[in-house]
Structures are given as C-alpha cells and as structure tokens.
Amino acid sequence: MTDTTGTTDTTDPATGRLEVAALTKSFGAQEVLRGVTLGVEPGSTTAIVGPSGSGKTTLLRLIAGFERPDSGTVRLSGEPVAGDGAWVPAHHRNVGYVAQDGALFPHLTVGQNIAFGLVGGAVGGGRRAKARVDELLEMVSLDRALASRRPHEVSGGQQQRVALARALAREPQLMLLDESFSALDAGLRVATRRTVAAVLGAAGITTVLVTHDQAEALSFADQVAVMRGGTLAQVDSPLEVYTRPVDRATAEFLGDAV
Ligand code: ADP
C-alpha cells in the first residue's frame, strides 16, 4: 500500500504481494504469453526459468508496466495495476527493474545514476540526495568514492550493483531482476548474488528474477516457475522442481546444478 505521502505501509499484510492472473500478450500474430498465472508472497523470491524465447522477459515487462497485457490482470499489494479496467504506468508502480546490462546512463556519474532513481529524480544533487546515494552505495557494498566515476570506469559487477542501488532508490515493494548477473564471471556472479540476496532479504522486498543459472534458481529462490512456450509448466519449491521436474527439459536444465 502506498499512501499519498509516498510512504509504504508495511503493516498491511498484502504489501509486496504480486498476483498475476491469466495474463496474455501477443506481438503481431505471435502469442508470447498464453495465460500466465503466478502468485508471489510478500518478501519471497521467485526464479523464472525456461528456454530462450519462452516469454520470461515479456512477463517481467508486463509486471513492471512497460507493456500492457491483452487480457488478464496484474495486482500489486492487493491493488490492480493492469487489467480489470486498471492501468498504472511503470513510473507509478512501486517496482524496481534491473535489466541484463544494467542499462546505466553512460553520460551520468554513478552517483547521478543512483540519484535518478530517487523519488522526484534529484539528479542535480542536494545534501539529502547525496546522503541517500551514499547510503544506497553502502547497501550494495560499494565504496562512496565510486560515486564520481562514470559507469565505464567501474567493473561489470560494480555496474550491476549500481543498477540495483538505482532500483532500490525508489524504495520498491517488488524487485524484478532480468538475467541481471548472467554477464558476470562465475566468482563475481556468486558474490553479487549474495549481496543482492542479503540486501533484498534485509529490506523484505519481494523479488522475481529471470535466470539461466540453475544454481541461482535453486539456491536464491523460495519458488521456481518453469516457463514453456508462453505458459508456466510448473510452479513449485526448488526441491520439488529438482526432484519432480515437470518434463525432461526441466530435468536437464536443473541436472547439472549440483
Ligand atoms: P525470453 O525472455 O524467454 O527469452 P522474451 O519474452 O524475450 O523471451 O521473448 C518471447 C518472444 O516474444 C520472442 O519471440 C520475442 O522475439 C518476442 N518479442 C518480445 N518482445 C517483443 C516486441 N516488443 N515486439 C515483437 N516481438 C517481441
């Protein structure tokens, strides 16, 4: 629940709950989502796995509000944000989104990139904005000194943390991570994933992440959703998906995770 002052009512048990029901989306003649239903409990993490082209990114983009569904509904914290006659655009949803490449603004410094995420987009600065940027850098385990650098002057792992800090600046109820760590090398991926899990867990932020990384799906998530050709073939605990995969492709995907 967000009241008129923009603060989050954490006492409402629905805060951060995501409910997606019978969602469909076509691009031209191509039916990309064919009735997706998914519930994500407040503060929990769901990993979406599945082959390339199965509709994972499209689902995240609909949840974020970058695309409108053809039919079906998206409810966030109990409120309809798409479908059922409702439409709340992305910038009015309490949702953070981190794309695969981080999508930082190359011409802005790290600090300005993060400040862009602050409510009101205080790019110019001000002491309060600067203090908040420092706080966000600390949350994602980055040195304050990095604030004055440009994105290309920090490492890939650091860029991902900056993107996360920018998304956190909005104080989202829900965080969407789209293959956010896949471009990083294995060691950095593990370290970044740990930081992200700790930050989001401590803040109690509901998380939905798209990943190609089996270990990530199994270790990071409370729930794994298996996407196949625009539908969810299975939504279960990691253990259940691992021990009772819905099909052979899922078994093969998870097979080399341990
Ligand atoms: P995944 O994330 O599982 O790889 P996507 O959701 O990115 O799958 O894409 C699913 C299908 O939808 C692909 O065939 C893709 O080409 C198509 N698609 C996604 N976005 C658009 C768009 N904006 N316009 C046309 N086709 C799109």
Describe the protein's architecture and organization.
This protein is of the alpha/beta class. 32% of the residues lie in helices and 25% in strands. The protein is built from eight helices and eleven strands. It has helices at residues 56-64, 110-117, 127-139, 156-168, 186-203, 214-220, 238-243, 248-255, and strands spanning 18-27, 30-40, 45-49, 71-76, 79-83, 86-87, 95-98, 174-178, 206-210, 223-228, 231-236. The strands form two sheets. Strands 7-8-9-3-10-11 form a six-stranded mixed sheet, with helices on both faces. Strands 2-1-4-5-6 form a five-stranded antiparallel sheet, covered by helices on one side. A hairpin with a 2-residue loop joins strand 1 and strand 2 (30-40). The chain is globular. It starts with 17 loop residues before the first strand and ends with a helix. Bound molecules: adenosine-5'-diphosphate. The site of adenosine-5'-diphosphate (ADP) has 10 residues, from helix 1. Keywords: ATP-binding, Cell inner membrane, Cell membrane, Ion transport, Iron, Iron transport, Membrane, Nucleotide-binding, Translocase, Transport. It comes from Terrabacter aeriphilus. This is ABC transporter ATP-binding protein. GO terms for molecular function: ATP binding. Residues 18-254 form the ABC transporter domain.
